[in-house]
Amino acid sequence: MGIHRASTLRGPQGPLLRGHRRRHAVSYAEHLIDVLPDLERFGFLMVKDQTNQIAGIITLADVAAEYGATARPFLLIGDLDRQLRRVISEGLDLTEVITLCDPDGRRKLATFDQLSYGDYQRVLGNQEQWDKLSWPLDRKSFIARLDELREIRNELMHFNDKDKVGDSAIPMLRNMIELLREHSC
Questions:
Q1: pLDDT digits (tens, 9 = 90+) for 2-59
Q2: 3-class DSSP state for residue 47?
Q3: Is residue 153 within 8 Å of 117, Cβ to Cβ?
Q4: For residues 32-69, b (16+ Cβ closer than 10 Å) or e, as one string?
Q5: What is the DSSP letter of 17?
Q6: End-to-end CA distance of the chain, in Å?
Q7: Which residue in 83, 86, 90, 97 has the fewest CB atoms around it within 10 Å?
Q8: Its pTM surpasses 0.85
């Protein structure tokens, strides 16, 4: 649950616990989603250990911090997707993009909104399309970084091991988003 040790509570009979014990106490085995209404109502919950003793506290701030840490990579991936789509749609011709991404017409691409991450790589990896953007960036390095971010995106979107992606993904995503904003058409 994200429990803090209750050392400042001064034991199970400490002043902070008196009067709050029953209403605000939950078992450490309960799922966070099930106790959210009480957490929202009271602002905090005491957490009981296996021996039914108060062992810690969880607050709204704890939940907000954990939500932020969990959601941040997903939000950044969404922002990266929007930035890539914007750069391509504002700087390149839709017909040429469709020819690169759906040459046989099976996918029936008709708008920039239908492009996938692989399509962004295909388009930006094409020297002719890249040159139209007039970016002072090395195309091969850019595409290599984009491919690293694709792997991160796939790990996140398939809910694979969060630790595999690691905290290094956040600055990489932010840097790419900033780069795209900086060099947009």
A1: 444 443 444 444 444 454 445 688 988 888 889 889 898 989 999 999 998 888 999 9
A2: strand
A3: yes
A4: eeebeebbeeeebbbbbeeeeebbbbbeeebbeeeeee
A5: T
A6: 46
A7: 90
A8: no
